[in-house]
Specification:
Elements lengths: L2 E11 L8 E5 L5 E2 L2 H24 L9 E11 L11 E3 L2 E6 L4 E3 L8 E6 L2 E3 L12 E2 L14 E3 L4 E6 L1 H7 L1 H35 L5
Antiparallel strand pairs: 1-2, 1-3, 1-4, 5-6, 6-12, 7-11, 8-10, 8-12, 9-11
Helix pairs in contact: 2-3
Bound molecules: zinc ion.
Zinc ion binds next to helix 1.
Length: 217
């Protein structure tokens, strides 16, 4: 579930002629969905149900709340799994979120919910446990987001001040821009295989070391 509702407050107005019902409702239940639109629809459905009870208690003898006007007053449809980062500059662009990081700041945290595939826009990033593996502008990481229910497998940090990273909801993107989605998919898979090759090299080295160690000491 890539998106969740955060601090959603909605206004509900009855459209029935001369009805004075106009109220604000806060959504306290956890609502999540694959797209921002899904979350919005789900939230509005819940708000309508809550408002109907309130409305009909007052005006129910005359008419019921049907097809009210519902608008979001405040709150956001946020990506699940992106590191909370209030200081960072965040911009929304149709399912894509951009964030900026300072040197050493963690972009992805091991064990977190994986919702988005990341692309370095400027600066660079690296896995905290493998500093030689660099993600430069145009490089992608975050393969866990391609597998449902998979959490992040490594900490990834920014290598320099002002490192800018795009977070893509790959499902949403494949509808809006299939070419870009395919590009990201290939980039992320390529990175995954590179990580596996690096691991194999490390394992070989470890095996050689183990063979050299005298046994039983
Ligand atoms: Zn009414």
């Amino acid at each position: 579930m890539p998106y969740k509702l955060k601090n959603g407050i909605y206004s509900v107005r009855c459209r029935y002629p001369r009805c004075t019902f106009h109220t604000q409702m806060e959504v306290q239940r956890n609502i999540a969905g694959m797209t921002q639109k899904d979350v919005e629809e789900e939230a509005k459905k819940l708000v309508r149900d809550m408002a109907m009870i309130k409305h009909d208690a007052m005006h129910g003898t005359r008419h019921t709340l049907r097809n009210p006007e519902i608008r979001k007053v405040s709150g956001a449809y946020e990506l699940i799994g992106a590191s909370p980062n209030s200081a960072a500059a965040v911009a929304e662009d149709g399912g894509t979120t951009y964030r900026e990081y300072q040197k050493g700041e963690v972009i992805l945290k091991k064990g977190e919910n994986a919702a988005a595939v990341c692309e370095v826009v400027s600066g660079y990033a690296y896995p905290v446990r493998n500093k030689n593996h660099r993600y430069k502008a145009g490089d992608c990481f975050g393969a866990a987001a391609l597998v449902a229910g998979q959490s992040r497998t490594a900490d990834i940090a920014a290598g320099t001040d002002g490192t800018r990273v795009a977070f893509y909801n790959i499902i949403e993107l494949s509808k809006q821009n299939p070419k870009k989605a395919r590009y990201l998919f290939n980039q992320v898979m390529e990175d995954t295989f590179k990580v596996i090759r690096d691991l194999e090299v490390s394992i070989d080295r470890l095996e050689q070391q183990v063979e050299k160690e005298p046994v039983g000491r």
